[in-house]
Amino acid sequence: MRISYATESAPGHVNEDYALCGNDWAAVLDGATAFPGVESGCVHDVPWLVRHLASGVSRRMLLDSMPLPDVLAAAIEETREAHGPACDLANPDSPSSTISIVRVCGGTAEYLTLADSPIVVRGHDQALTPVIDDRLAHLPGGRPYSRKLVRSLRNQPGGFWVASTSTEAAYRAITGSVPFEPGSEIGIFTDGASRLVEFYGYEWEHVFSVMETGGPGALLRLVRSAENEKPLGDAKQHDDATAVFMTGCGAARPDQGIMQRPANWRDLVGM
Ligand SMILES: [Zn+2]
User: Fold this and answer.
1) What is the 3-state secondary structure (H, E, C) of 124-167?
2) 129: CA distance to ligand 1 center in Å?
3) CA of 228 to the centre of ligand 1 (A)
4) CA 222/CA 214 separation, integer angstroms
5) 121 three-class SS
6) Which of 87, 128, 234, 259 is the Cys-Cys partner for 42 at CB 3.0 to 4.6 Å?
7) How far does residue 99's CA lie from ligand 1's centre (Å)?
């Protein structure tokens, strides 16, 4: 197993993304930038929240073998306690973050993704499977969303879920598992990196090709290059950007050959 990553703030800003990796797991977080003038009820900033969630996840990934939703729920609960009495944890604008986690064990990769930080699996047979939580893109009534609508549907059934003050969000994440063998690859991205596909028209094949040859750092350079060449109209020109690249190494087991997907593959990845 090889894991590499790169993370970079938008030029001139504090990085609200975070990447963390162990020997056989990796996670990516993307803190939600607060709207100007919004009262969050919290004395902490977004990087504080992201660091606390990352710390809680990291410790459990290292020391426990609990299911990924339990890992995240424990990290959220621990972060709730760290806020302290000065913070109103019932405020729906409390700082929040996306989180995506992948853990590889015995030829299988388990994943959890909550909010917009895509996980993309490239199987042994080169087939690409994006696992994307796009519930924020499909709120009732369609875009443009009012701030009031987003506020009312955050961490609510029928709305969208983020890592903030609700442990229930951990159990509303998209989870599953896929085969992960020598030759398989997984990318985990914040939307500052996946915008290459979502906004600039690149194919996931190209993204993986860039990471194979130049690593995640080369991918982020390509993102900045695209942003400089063709600024996006409504979206911010630059965003914090993070990419993790996980590669299965070693020889395939002799009896394996070309891996067959299980019959319930599409169910596992929510397709
Ligand atoms: Zn707080």
Assistant:
1) CCCCEEEECCCHHHHCCCCCCCCHHHHHHHECCCCCECCECCCC
2) 37
3) 35
4) 11
5) strand
6) 87
7) 18
Per-residue pLDDT of 62-119, as tens digits, reads: 998 899 999 999 999 999 999 999 999 999 999 999 999 999 998 999 999 999 999 9
Tens digit of each residue's pLDDT (9 = 90 or more) over 2-41: 999 999 999 999 999 999 999 999 999 999 987 788 899 9
Task: Kindly report the backbone phi and psi dihedral angles of residue 223, in degrees, each rounded to the nearest multiple of 5, phi listed first.
Answer: -60, -50
The three-class DSSP label of residue 270 is coil
CA distance 11 to 192: 12
For residue 236, name the pLDDT band (cuts at 50, 70, 90): confident
| pTM tops 0.85 | yes
Compute the distance from residue 87 Cα to the ligand 1 centre, in Å. Answer: 5
For residue 83, the CA-to-ligand 1 centroid distance in Å is: 4
Residue labelled with tokens 């030759």: 183
- Ligand 1 centroid–CA 214 distance in Å is 39
Distance 112 CA to ligand 1 centre (A): 25
CA–CA distances in Å: residue 166 to residues 100, 124, 154: 16, 37, 10
How confident is residue 251, by pLDDT bands cut at 50, 70 and 90? low
Rounded to the nearest 5 percent, the helix, strand and coil shares of the chain are 30, 25, 45
Ligand 1 center to 221 CA (angstroms): 34
